Amino acid sequence: MMILKALALGELHGLGVSRRIEQITKGTFQVKPGSLFPALHRMEEEGWLESHWGESENNRRAKYYKLTGAGRRQLEAETKRWGRIALAITRTLEAS
Amino acid sequence: MKSLLRNLLHRQREERELDKEVRAHELLLADENIRAGMNPEQARRQARLELGGVEQVKEQVREIRAGHLLEMLGCDVHYAARMMRRSPAFATTAVLTLALGIGANTAVFSVVNAVLLRPLPYPDSDRLVQMWSTNPKANRWGMWTAYPRFEDWRRENTVFEEMATARTWLISIKGGDHPESLFGVITSSQIFQLLRVQPMLGRGFLPEEDQPGHDHVIILSYGLWQRRFGSDRDVIGRTVDVDQQSYTVIGVMPSDFRFPPELPASYRVDAWLPPAPDPSRNERVSNNYYTFARLKPGVTLAQAQAEMDAIHDGLAEKHPEDRELGVKVVGWRRQVGSEVRPALLILVGAISLVLLIACANVANLLLARGAMRQREAALRQALGAGRARLIRQFLTESLLLAVFGGAVGLLLAYQGVDLFIRLAPDIPRLNETTIDPHVLIFSVVLTLGTALIFGIAPALHGSSTDLQDSLKESGSRLTIGSTRAGARSVLVVAEMALALMLLAGAGLLVRSFMRVQQIDLGFNPRNLLTAFVMLPPSKYPEPRRQALFFHEVMDRIASLPGVECAGGADSAPMLTNDTGPVSIEGHPMEPEIQAERPKITPDYFRAMGIRLLRGRTFTWADSEGSLPVAIVNESAARQYWPDEDAMGKRVKLEDGSAPVWRQVIGIVGDVRQDSAVALARPEVYAPLLQVPVPYLALAVRTRAGPTALTVAVRQAVMAVDKDQPLSGIKTMEQVVEDSVAGRRFQMSLLAVFATIALGLAAIGIYGLMSYTVNQRTHEIGIRMALGAKRREILHLVMRHGMMLAIVGVALGTVGALLLTRSLSSMLYGVGANDPTTLLSVATLLIGVAALASYIPARRAMRVDPMVALRYE
Predict the structure, then answer these.
(1) In three state form, how does the secondary structure of B705-759 look?
(2) What confidence tens digit (pLDDT) does each residue in B462-507 have?
(3) Is B47's Cβ below 8 Å from some Cβ in A?
(4) Which of B148, B165, B457, B702 has its CA 20 to 30 A from that of B631?
(5) Which domain holds residue A6?
(6) What is the ipTM of this complex?
(7) Rounded to two decimals, what is the model's pTM?
(8) Do B21 and A63 touch (CB under 8 A)?
(9) Domain range annotation of chain B
């Protein structure tokens, strides 16, 4: 979900995704390549992401990922679900 | 799905993309680091650390891909196949060991499947039941009942769709160069509706054909139709001469029709005929039919039993003959093959043990290889393979071995089944044995299970390597890798234990068989020819003519050159029976004094070699007009007159013949009437001329090989009546041999299994010891350099091997003590825990183990310390 969210703001390459997530979460989450790439590939296979080769800021070829329509819908669905779960957990914690 | 296809079809492109992507990532990381102020060298190193290894990341991506499992399987199979190609000796040994195990198991299972598991060869056969007539008071359970009782059952019940009854009968048929004796089945008319089988030509029996006057019809078997009628389709309606009366052919059964299913496989029924009971006789006392029925849909066995019980209560009130009797409804399929069930199950158990030993052996081979492949496994791990991945790969290799083993095993099973059928004793439905889909499924499951059993330990061991230790070259030679050696020792001990159990079982059967061979049968089977003569009642209605016929036949046979003497009896050991009640004068009438009641010709005892202990034998002068006489055997004399002299006492045969008291004029030795192992029973012999019978088993004592006289004996019978056939011609030795054939087969098979087990266990211990010696070459070299004597080295290795063998034998002995109990029904003259047998097989196994460890031990002894140390 965090990867989808990171990509919602525009297309990024792999390192960009992990830097974006670090940035958004203020360093709470650091995504290692060992989990990043499998996740990206899985989501591409699910049809949530598209990829193409492009030039990076400093002229390196890199593979860029962007959200597809299905990816956006998935993000919405997961956001809602997460909202419900987070709410439920918060309530549970407050109840005591 | 699309990505699955893409992944599988364009793997190389995908792989290139992935590689480029991960490398690009690494470069981007490095760029970042440079921007952060590192020098390029430092930046690249830092980037690589952060990435955690290009190959590992790639492997992790691969694992989530669609079709990953399939691809990995392909990969694993590929690796595995390469491994097998690289070490053909290992692969061949493993595959052949497994093939032997799986093949033998498949063959045994296919026999069990045909004899015990497969439904009877009739439609909806699970509804078929047998009806037994029982005598609870006398504790007698058997399937035989009387024809009128069957008619009552059939008329009064509401739970069966149909009920029919049958018995076997020898008939003679005329024509050709000599009259032929046929194996017929007399059956009530409902049989074909009940079995839901139709004749191939013509029709089945009509209900009225059960009645006298309409009963001269016959249905031919396919075999008889082919052999005797040249497969002529116009045979229907033709008349044939059966027992010298004319019968009309009304049908021909299809070639695969078998009835009754209980008959041993080699028996071929030639014809089916209607019963036509004789209304003038009280048929209610002759229990010679066996009855079967088809349950109505929805009716359970218990319901049927309840109703039959009620019917029987009613019958007992009407018929005094039925008063002591009961009825029992039993599922038919369970009944067929029930006699061989324990023997077959023991074979299944024994052959499973062989497979387990084979598994242990292959596991051992794999473990030994695993040691050599430790570095390979470590390398794979370093390149990013997870433990699960390694286990999967090792298991795939095991699976591939098992699949090859299974395939070769199936081929062996095809051959094995043929061999089994050829060597096996005659048991019902054996000839139905085929490799059918059930057997195939069984062998596939067996193969997979086998792969798991022998593959799991090596896979776990092979995958749990310590990266650091394994990659380093040195250091591994001094120690043996204790867990691995431990696992292998456990396997060898298990093999020893299993082999001992099999050897113990086989040993007990061999000893039993030897005891059986030594039994005094009470007669002399050497140089004795036997055959049956059955006179058709239509041609010989008068008892006196029957007796005269046999008198003349005996005289003719006795005068043949090469014949010492000839006799005949309607009840002869291992050939025929006439068991029934007798009365003893002065004793209260007990209905259950049962004896064997042979009617014999004068020379019968001499021909058979039965000892006359007291008094005299019969002569032809003991005939109609003279004093009614009898001869009893020792058992009868002892049982009927425990404290008195049997000579001169009087007995009466309760067999429907003239009810006269017969004076005992002689006592003869006991014979083993039913089989070599069944105890002798009381016998009361009567002279044939006083109690004529239409049926005799001939016993012809010859001077030399009895088979040479077959033709002469047949001609002697035909010289008296040219239409009279002779059937079942066999030497008595063959008859005796047949009676122990099952025992011999069981023993041979178990002995073969045990020998295989012994061989496998020997290979197992040899393999482990060789391996250990190889591993310890360096250590042995040091020991020798330090002054150890060669003998001490020999002892060192031998001690290890012997320890394993002794532990295995000890465990196996415990197992054998528990398991051989299941053999006890098959033993004769030895206890299930016979100490002599156990001791000798234990000695044998330890001896073989000693030999198997001596060879590697000698090699260890010859180790040249210089070479061993330089080897490092």
Answers:
(1) CHHHHHHHHHHHHHHHCCCCCCEEEEEHHHHHHHHCHHHHHHHHHHHHHHHHHHH
(2) 777 665 565 554 444 444 455 566 778 888 999 999 999 999 999 9
(3) no
(4) B702
(5) 2-95
(6) 0.74
(7) 0.74
(8) yes
(9) 2-66, 68-120+339-473, 125-335, 477-519+739-872, 536-723
